[in-house]
Amino acid sequence: MKNIVLTGLPGCGKTTLGRAAAKKLGMGFLDLDALVETRAEKSIKKIFEEDGEEAFRCQETEAVRIAAAQSGMVISTGGGVVERPENTALLRHSGLLIFIDRPAAQIAENIRTAGRPMMEGKKEKLFELEARRRSLYEEAAHYILHSGKNRRETEKKLYGLCRRLLSPARYCVIGDPIGHSLSPEIHNPVLRRYTEAAVYDKKRVERGQLADFVREARRGLAGFNATMPHKEALIPLLDEIDPGAAALGSVNTVVNRGGKLYGYSTDGAGFFSALADRGVSPQGKRLLLLGAGGAAAAVALKAAELGASEIVILARDAGKAQALADRARYAAFSAGVKAGLFEEAETYAADTDILVNATPLGMEGTAAGFESLGFLQALPETAAVCDLIYKPRPTAFLRRAAELGHPVMDGLPMLIYQALLADEYYLGTKLPLKKEYLELEKALFSGTQADG
Prior knowledge:
With 452 residues, the chain is an alpha/beta fold. It has helices spanning 14-25, 32-40, 44-51, 53-68, 85-94, 104-107, 125-140, 151-166, 183-194, 210-220, 243-248, 267-277, 294-305, 318-331, 345-349, 396-403, 412-427, 433-445; strands at 3-7, 28-31, 73-76, 95-101, 143-146, 170-175, 199-204, 223-226, 240-241, 253-257, 260-264, 286-290, 310-315, 336-341, 354-357, 384-387, 408-409.
């Protein structure tokens, strides 16, 4: 069982809260400061007076090593434990770090400074510590728990969070077909770093089975993702839809909160998060989008929201392209949105900053590809070229763009980022997205040609 590790300013209540949580959860309790005193056979105040702060910090790190080797414990840390990166790394590896965020101004109202070497008799020192350490607490924490109005309320919040983190949670992705999905390989390693026994599977659900699946999900799943053909059909079956997903008319992430199902879409944000990693922003840029399906809609509406100066949508069906253009125009009145046919790609390419293929042309397992890639030669030299397909890697479309000297990105970064953003909804916390992305990208496609 994972440990629960509490960090925060002196006087935030880590020890009291930790003891109470451990008792309710049936876990052991360990106070790092008490462990240091036991091993040194003298108080922390004496260690500071006789040996100095550096000696205390070294002894604290040894205590961290001992604590990190335990399991099934609630561990209360000293306020300065986060000032050594090695401490943070050990504690994060051993369990889930929770930052008890109680403001210094609130703590100062009733804290006793006697016996606290870092602020002996001087409450104002607490504000200096907050200024120095707050960012360290936030960066170290898996979760931030904002203190309640009183200790009882904070205790209740902490217990509820711990129960959720330590309880087995089941998730899955649904679609038809679904056998090819990489979702379990992406979600499982991430979710298991933040919950005790998360399990993420894939499940084939045919169109006519969707309503029955949703009824079952209310009782047995903490959340689920959806791919084709269910992203639009899910909406009337859910209890609440995020405004962005409602505007898109599509849901790819569903979170179960007490039997109520909440729907979100992370596709568009996932694509532009990946693009941002490569130093490319749609703001003020001209975007040429090939395709008018669900993936194209996610990109078009998010691009409009993020301030693209112009969006051109080209498809084989002029009516579908125009319908999507109308939706994107409505989503952001400042964006100039046009629609047209594939045959016009070369004409529009000459004035494009970002080109995105949102069609299945060139996808592994399909016979169809682009009849001609000549339009790529009309692009400005600096134009970024993206393909939402990730198999094969790279596609012929991207290979040709790279040969012409364009920065390129395939669909894997979007796939990973939209999954990570879904995990943030599942877990109720912000993730270190770039770090998680790099680990997943390496694990999924190690040894294959990377995107540009």
